[in-house]
Specification:
The chain is of the alpha+beta class and about 450 residues long. It folds into two domains: about 250 residues, ATPase, nucleotide binding domain (Nucleotidyltransferase, domain 5, 2-Layer Sandwich), CATH 3.30.420.40; about 200 residues, Carbamoyltransferase, C-terminal domain (DHBP synthase, Alpha-Beta Complex), CATH 3.90.870. About 35% of the residues lie in helices and about 20% in strands. The chain is built from 15 helices and 16 strands. It has a nine-stranded mixed β-sheet with strand order 8-16-15-9-10-14-11-13-12, sandwiched between helices. A five-stranded mixed β-sheet has the order 3-2-1-6-7, sandwiched between helices. A two-stranded antiparallel ribbon has the order 4-5. Strand 15 and strand 16 form a beta hairpin. Helix 2 packs antiparallel against helix 6, helix 6 packs across helix 7 and helix 10 packs across helix 14.
Length: about 450
């Protein structure tokens, strides 16, 4: 059977959540089945659609259009706007309020004449590098308001930073407006969210601050890659009437590779340095390398499902070293200097380091650090004092948890810098990809299962 796009999104969050009593469901993205957002009432094994927002009104198209204007015109670069926004000022507040209208009668509305979401390129079209071809989503009227759009190859200026700031703040205001409206329709503290817009971690943390929802769940693949699972669970529960629930507590559902494959790959690399027969020695040695200021590739077990590296396909480093962020951006990730890195923290130690005590196992919330830790942890503290939080617990990833604990015992810091194991490419999956990335970047150490490779 066919399951509507946003219904599959909501099902992917609700049916994998710990909630079975009354729960509010919300999905928002650019579009799917001509709809950009959906509100739903979830209870037991049933989901009831309450309302929809239909095209041409779309927060996802609004955000992507401004993302393109700033010069990030490849598919899926919206996260760069979120990272750039803290460097700017809200100079374009009045224009953004004109572009996105919020009132008590509507979820949101886009101004006419500025966006061309029906001119967004041919579905499935790719270029010679297999990148999705994106048509331009903004019109000449926006250029008249903002001036010429930045070319991708041109330097970023304060104007682009200010546009990013105003775009992000208007998006946050719209998200909070929608969720407060949703609460009036479905008064419960429990919320599940999905859709591409639900990957905006800054907005997710603000929703917990500025709406009555205090318990939220977002599964790790909240964008369109998660709709397949949502459609399957919708059929399982809503159509077939099954009541037995599954809660997704971790994201490690991808492939894993045998010890023999890892050993063969390590031996061929020429970098094999050591082998560990037990996990205690492994995490102790890895913690020493991180504490000493080395950049460590951490390749363990099954790969993560979704866009975030969560401790199995990660690059790790000491968050207390002031130049570490610049070093990794320049020498390993080879990406824009403004891009921040994530702090991985043991769940019980979050209140020590962060202003909001949020469980965020899938790195879905950007949270302010407590002021006394911002200068102490410069490599994971963004310019606005925030970090994209990943909470780590013993049940979901015991090896990664033990590594952070070992680092804490050596340094007194219960946080490690975590970024995805890649260099301007998809996150590495197999051991050969990991070793290739290790070789061509200035990473210092690679832990490939129980094997240590070192330059």
């Amino acid at each position: 059977m066919n399951v509507e796009h946003h219904l599959a999104h909501i099902a992917s969050a609700y049916y994998l959540s710990p909630f079975e009593s009354l729960t509010a469901g919300f999905s928002y993205d650019a579009s799917g089945d001509f709809t950009s957002a959906m509100a739903a009432k979830c209870e037991g094994n049933r989901i009831e659609i309450i309302d929809r927002v239909n095209l041409p009104h779309s927060l996802g198209f609004f955000y992507t259009a401004l993302c393109q204007f700033i010069g990030f015109d490849h598919f899926g670069e919206e996260y760069k706007v979120m990272g750039l926004a803290p460097y700017g000022n809200d100079v374009y507040r009045d224009l953004m309020r004109q572009l996105v209208t919020l009132d008590r009668n509507n979820w949101y509305q886009l101004a006419e004449g500025y966006f061309g979401m029906h001119e967004g390129g041919e579905s499935g079209a790719i270029d010679h590098e297999n990148r999705i071809i994106m048509g331009r989503l903004y019109k000449e009227s926006l250029i008249k308001k903002l001036g010429k759009p930045r070319l991708r190859t041109n330097p970023l200026t304060q104007r682009e930073m200010d546009i990013a700031c105003s775009t992000q703040l208007r998006f946050e205001a719209a998200a909070v407006h929608c969720l407060n409206k949703l609460y009036k329709l479905i008064p419960t503290e429990q919320l599940v969210m999905a859709g591409g817009c639900a990957l905006n971690g800054v907005a997710n943390a603000r929703i917990l601050r500025d709406t009555p929802f205090s318990k939220t769940y977002l599964q790790p693949a909240a964008s369109d890659d998660g709709t397949c699972l949502g459609a399957a669970y919708y059929c399982w529960h809503q159509i077939l009437g099954n009541k037995k629930r599954f809660q997704m507590k971790h994201a490690f559902w991808g492939p894993e590779y045998s010890e023999s494959i890892m050993r063969s790959t390590a031996e061929k690399s020429g970098f094999l340095n050591n082998e560990f027969n037990n996990s205690n020695d492994l995490v102790d040695d890895a913690a020493n390398e991180i504490a000493d200021g080395n950049v460590v590739g951490w390749y363990q077990g099954r790969s993560e499902w979704g866009p975030r590296a969560l401790g199995n396909r990660s690059i790790l480093a000491n968050p207390a070293i002031p130049l570490m962020k610049d070093t990794i951006n320049r020498k390993i990730k080879r990406r824009e200097s403004f891009r921040p890195f994530a702090p991985s923290v043991m769940r019980e130690r979050i209140p020590k380091y962060f202003e909001q005590n949020i469980a965020s196992p899938f790195m879905m919330h950007v949270v302010k650090l407590n002021k006394k830790w911002r200068e102490k942890l410069p490599a994971i503290t963004h310019v606005d004092g925030t970090g994209r939080l990943q909470s780590v617990d013993k049940e979901s990833n015991p090896l990664y948890y033990d590594l952070i604990d070992a680092f804490f015992k050596k340094t007194g810091i219960g946080v490690v810098l975590n970024t995805s194991f890649n260099e301007n490419e998809p996150i590495v999956d197999n051991p050969e990809q990991a070793v290739k990335c290790f070789k061509r970047t200035e990473m210092d150490v690679l832990f490939l299962g129980g094997l240590k490779l070192k330059k």
